[in-house]
UniProtKB/TrEMBL annotation:
Pfam families named among the record's database cross-references: Peptidase_S9 (PF00326), Peptidase_S9_N (PF02897)
Residues of the Peptidase S9A N-terminal domain: 8-401
UniProt entry tagged with the keyword Protease: yes
Domain Peptidase S9 prolyl oligopeptidase catalytic: 480-680
Alphabetically ordered keywords of this record: Hydrolase, Protease, Serine protease
Lineage: Bacteria, Pseudomonadati, Pseudomonadota, Gammaproteobacteria, Oceanospirillales
Tagged with keyword Protein biosynthesis: no
InterPro entries tied to this protein: AB_hydrolase_fold, Pept_S9A_N, Peptidase_S9_cat, Peptidase_S9A, Prolyl_oligopep/macrocyclase
Record-given protein name: S9 family peptidase
Superkingdom: Bacteria
Length: 686
């Protein structure tokens, strides 16, 4: 029988995002947190240091190539909302390049009385080789929400196109077909959005006509997750595709024919699929039997696209996972395919080149063997040039550039922004409740004594196939490591560290395994003498907020403090709030028998009066239109009602990222680290 609290939620009023009563409650909670944290000694210095780190002039300005120019979006103290700008490769090689500013977002906000946050640019490749890039679709969000507007910008005249393509504020987007035609998926009015809050109709829209008169290309079902369409402009391989996302791991891909008809690409819905030039690439999430051969989950297959669409099923295996390896990413260049493989959460890069039907892997020449490594093509239609980004917990990020098969050149290296002298990174394995080894990285002093008294911050995520990988975090370095803290990242199930099996091991009714893995890492840190329960803090956001919320209710005896950011916490109503319905493939359906296991992992429903919980800091954003701020609000209200120690801070902007600019990011980071310092460091002499 359902408990009365499940039948009647007394805090539903806090789900009214802009409700007067709810915002008054938020203002009061924010004032309490400001008094406890922002007014604490050292807070202002820490916040200013973190903002200076975020706005360092010599950090790497990462770029995207379009034609002869390299484009970058940049935020600093003088331009908090940012500049969209460009330069040449020759200029980019310099320590301080000269940039041509195209859009000054702060100036635009002042001119229009808005609070625009940059959401990106989609630019049309010219039809004639050598012609300048001109037409761009710019996405801007009010306050950082997922919903945004799209406007057209002219790169030659460096101005907004009036009248040009314009999409009003909604979740969705525009994508170029040619200079006078776009695909549009957006809110077309009543009934045009899915239950998840994303577009379910995609149309083809011609310049100079009302968007309402655009031609419908595909209409998904209301219960689907989302729909989209795209045009592949690769010379000689121009094609159009429609994607129907039935659920998070259930996606159909269609080839759109010249007459507008759609032909489904007959591969499993659960697979990642992409078409590049003459090739169809399929990465499996589940086993797939083809012509008597069963290919395992995690395998990467390739086929001739036209032959496959004609009925042939000749598939070549490019990668097969092992117990310790998985495919992290793939990158096409003009003539090569680069595989980024994780081997016990460490990166290995391989180049595959088609030759007489063979794809023999070779290590990428000059690629580093330590740290996290990501690869992107400079222009996969024209060259084999790549950018390679290298980072680890203690080494500032490095940007390499080169051509496949040749030595890589270091283009940029970020400055060291905290003192890493005497620190080291080590990898360890904890044993979860069911015997599974769980890897985790530890950043600490080399001479760390096993006293059990070291303040330790444990971070995790554990969902949606997302693996938290090593990366340089100067904020963690400045605010935590330099203060004597230990930093730990757990690679728990639910993520993608070991491919689909690692993710699927914690899906739906198995979600508890992610929490057991995280608890195993906490216990291992205590058993190894790194820390103790009163010195151990945990941090997680979004799905990671669900993780740390469950750690609070299930393993309070292991913890000294909890930082819970933009979280899911009410698993009874999550599917009714904003984009929540799109995650039912991950968590389950609360309106079915799934509630039997969902209740067990719903922190909001598992709080108990009289229980001794560690202090908690809940953080969210009013403008988060992905994970509803009501989760954090209601959790705080119930903890307050039951007399538990908790603080709450809600940023008025920022979307799911929590902040809209570096000032806000620094403020929120400083709140979190001040809270952790107060709870885990201040009492060390007790």
């Amino acid at each position: 029988m359902a408990a009365p609290f499940e039948e009647h939620d007394p805090y539903l009023w806090l789900e009214e995002v802009e409700g007067e009563r709810a915002l008054a409650w938020v203002e009061q909670r924010n004032a309490e947190s400001q008094a406890r944290l922002a007014d604490a000694p050292g807070f202002t210095v820490l916040r200013d240091d973190l903002q200076a780190i975020l706005e360092a002039d010599d950090r790497i300005p990462f770029v995207v190539k379009r034609g002869e120019y390299f484009y970058n979006f940049w935020q600093d103290r003088d331009h908090p909302r940012g500049l969209w700008r460009r330069t040449t490769l020759e200029e980019y090689r310099k320590a301080r390049p000269e940039w041509e500013v195209l859009i000054d977002l702060d100036a635009l906000n002042a001119e229009e009385g808005e609070n625009w946050v940059w959401h990106g640019a989609h630019c049309l490749r010219p039809e004639s080789p050598g012609a300048p890039w001109r037409h761009c679709l710019i996405s801007l969000s009010r306050g950082g929400a997922d919903a945004d507007v799209t406007r057209e910008f002219d790169l030659v005249e460096k101005r907004w196109v009036e009248p040009g393509f314009f999409r009003p504020e909604a979740k969705g987007g525009l994508g170029w077909i040619d200079r006078d035609t776009v695909y549009v998926q957006t809110d077309f009015g009543e009934g045009s959005m899915t239950r998840s809050g994303y577009p379910r109709i995609v149309k083809q829209w011609r310049r100079g006509t009302p968007m309402a008169d655009a031609e419908t290309v595909f209409e998904a079902e209301p219960g689907d997750m989302a729909v989209g369409a795209m045009h592949d402009s690769t010379p000689g391989f121009q094609r159009d595709f429609v994607s129907r996302a039935r659920a998070f791991y259930d996606n159909e891909l269609y080839l759109r024919q010249a007459d507008g008809s759609l032909t489904r690409i007959e591969v499993p819905n659960s697979a990642h699929k992409q078409v590049h030039r003459e090739w169809l690439l399929v990465e499996l999430r589940e086993p797939w039997e083809v012509a008597g051969t069963v290919h395992p989950a995690g395998a990467l297959l390739i086929a001739d696209f036209d032959a496959f669409m004609g009925g042939e099923r000749e598939l070549r295996v490019l990668f097969t996972p092992t117990e310790r390896t998985s495919l992290s990413d793939v990158t096409w260049t003009r003539r090569h395919l680069i595989l980024n493989v994780l081997d016990d959460v460490k990166h290995r890069l391989y180049v595959l080149t088609p030759s007489e039907g063979q794809w023999q892997p070779e290590p990428l020449a000059g690629a580093p063997t330590l740290g996290s490594v990501s690869v992107s093509a400079v222009d996969d239609e024209e060259s084999d040039e790549v950018f390679v980004i290298v980072s680890d917990y203690l080494t500032p990020t490095t940007l390499l550039h080169g051509r496949v098969g040749e030595a890589l050149e270091m283009l940029k290296q970020a400055p060291a922004l905290f003192d890493a002298e005497g620190l080291e990174v080590t990898q360890h394995f904890a044993t979860s409740r069911d015997g599974t080894p769980i890897p985790y990285f530890q950043v600490a002093r080399r001479d760390l004594e096993p006293s059990g008294e070291h303040p330790t911050l444990l971070y995790g995520y554990g969902g949606f196939e997302v693996p938290p990988l090593p990366g340089y975090s100067p904020g963690v370095g400045r605010a935590w490591l330099s203060q004597g803290g230990v930093y730990v990242v757990a690679n728990i199930r639910g993520g993608g560290e070991y491919g689909p099996r690692w993710h699927q091991a914690a899906l739906r009714d198995q979600r508890h395994k992610a929490f057991e893995d995280f608890a195993a890492v906490a216990e291992d840190l205590i058993e190894r003498g790194v820390t103790s329960a009163r010195r151990l803090g945990i941090q997680g956001g979004s799905n990671g907020g669900l993780l740390v919320g469950n750690m609070l209710t299930r393993y309070p005896q292991l913890l000294g403090a909890v930082v819970c950011q933009v979280p899911l916490l009410d698993m009874r109503r999550y599917h009714l709030l904003l984009a929540g319905a799109s995650w039912m493939a991950e968590y389950g359906d609360p309106e079915s028998d799934d509630w039997e296991f969902l209740r067990d992992v719903s922190p909001y429903h598992n709080l108990e009066p009289g229980e001794q919980y560690p202090p908690m800091l809940l953080m969210t954003s009013t403008r988060d239109d992905r994970v509803h701020p009501g989760h954090a609000r209601k959790m705080m209200a119930r903890m307050h009602e039951q007399g538990h120690e908790a603080l709450y801070y809600e940023n008025v902007e920022g979307g799911h990222g929590g902040a809209a600019d570096n000032r806000q990011r620094a403020h929120m980071q400083a709140l979190a680290f001040t809270f952790l310092e107060q709870r885990l460091m201040k009492e060390r002499s007790d």
